[in-house]
Specification:
The complex is a heterodimer. Helix content of chain A is 31%, strand content 28%. Chain A is α+β, with helices and mostly antiparallel strands. Chain A folds into 2 domains: 321 residues, no CATH class; 92 residues. In chain A, a hairpin with a 5-residue loop joins strand 12 and strand 13. In chain A, helix 8 packs antiparallel against helix 9. The longest helix of chain A is centred in the C-terminal third of the chain and has 20 residues. Chain A starts with 5 loop residues before the first strand and ends with a strand. By secondary structure, chain B is α+β, with helices and mostly antiparallel strands. Chain B has 3 helices and 6 strands. In chain B, a hairpin with a 4-residue loop joins strand 2 and strand 3. Chain B is elongated and about 40 Å long. The termini of chain B are close together. Classes of the chains: A alpha+beta, B alpha+beta. At the A-B interface, helix 10, strand 16 and strand 19 of A face strand 3, strand 4 and strand 5 of B.
Chain lengths: 451, 103
Amino acid sequence: MSEKRTICIMAAAGMLGSTFDEEAFYHALEANPAMIGCDSGTTDSGPYYLGAGVARMNRSAAKRDLTLMITEGIARSIPVLVGSAGTAGADANVDWMVDIVREIASEQKLRFKLAVIKTEIPQDMLMSYWEDGKILPLPGAEPLTREEISKVVRCVSAVGPEPFMQALREGAQVIIAGRTTDTSIFTAVPALAGLDNAFAWHAAKVLECGSLASVFEVKHGSMLAWIREDSASIAPGNPQMQASPVSVVSHTLYENADPFNLIEPGRKIHTKDAVYTAEDDRTVRITNTTMTRIPYTVKLEGVRFEGYRRVAICGVRDPLILKQFSAWIDDTIKQTKSKIARGMGLNDTDYRLRYMVFGDPEQVGDNALGLMFDVIAATPEQANGIISNVWHTALHVPIRDWQGAQSQTAFPFSPPTLETQNGGKTFSFCLNHVLSLDDPLETARISYHEL
Amino acid sequence: MKKLYQIAKLIRSKNAGPFTITLDVIFPDAESYKAVLATGALDKEAIAQLYGIQKDKMQRYELPLANAVKFSYPRAVPSGDFLDDDLYGCQQHAPLVMLNIPL
């Protein structure tokens, strides 16, 4: 009779840099997991992080979490796997995190083999994949044109567990990867042990959010899963916290369009008939999940550059303006556009201008109605010129109820304009597509470093 | 007549990737879950109409184990695009909160 295998996997937290609960982390380590993993990425904060190649999280918070994971991983000979480094998982985001890892190794006097997995797809490679017909639209998306491909300024492929598995086979003790699927971080080690099964993927889907699937999350932190040939079990690292069948099944809803079909590179996991049972008062066992092999594709995330953003925020309090607000704002926009045409030679198709109103003009009472102007233009100079035109026009557009010169908008600071980070550089998501691969390692560039 | 928020234990919305919004309505127990579903107020047609989405573009899932019903639909504007006004898609559940439930 063959020995029943169990692989214990551990998520340090749902997001690297969340400064996870240290006590739960150490408690989880007592289970002697075969890996410590953490996801570091998300598209939730929008296209900027991929476009600019910067991380959303704070560097010192990321360093704190990585220090705990790496020092304990090396001391206990447990591999440490981080996926989707630095929010977007582009090459620049990976480099940012590798720099932190090098700093930790040097400060903590640690020696280990680091694997760096980059999954960004350069423009020429993307174009060649497109020419080969390997970029396929997801439901609701259209096939891409050559022009659309040429406008992609940065693109990453969300790779599966195979690049992690390759790095582990090469003896990597710490792996920092670019964009990966969240689950792949946690399924690589079970897969190497022969457990590339539905239960590993289902558990990984729960684990990638750290302890979020707990009944009540006292403190965010570590989560554990035990993967077997016929089931998986899940429990929070914090001994004061519990997982219950309802808390785990409820988690399958979270940030997920379809809770029953999890599509991963080369695999589709079906959770509709999964059975969740309480193993004890804090551990949930999952059985009956199934997995189908499908053609191997990786999801692409890509952004286009839109221009430079400038914003102005102000308050309007005069009751006579508020009662005719819509006519006043229309007049303001009209006058602004014509001033921009006269003064800057730009048509309203050369830039984008919108306003947002916070509150109901009829119901603000003694309070101010919030008003925001938002501009994107092709150059920083144009954006500066347009936003100045907008706010200064708004300041002085008169209403007929008053006679004489009027000033209408209350600005909370000087200058009254803001640029979003990095000079207001603005991007948009432009790919809702997958890339068909012949080899799961095709878009992964793996390098090894002895630290 | 009750409002949905008076029965549900959680009504929320969130991005499911940059191109999709997902709505979750979670009930405190099987009894309230079944009672609300039986009214038809959370049928696919009703929610598609409430959100101004074509019926065939509205996905609907029932999760009796979680006493939850879920809807997913394509975003009118992708997350973070110029005309987007809700980056995380996290305030799109508002129309559901005051939804009348004939109970």
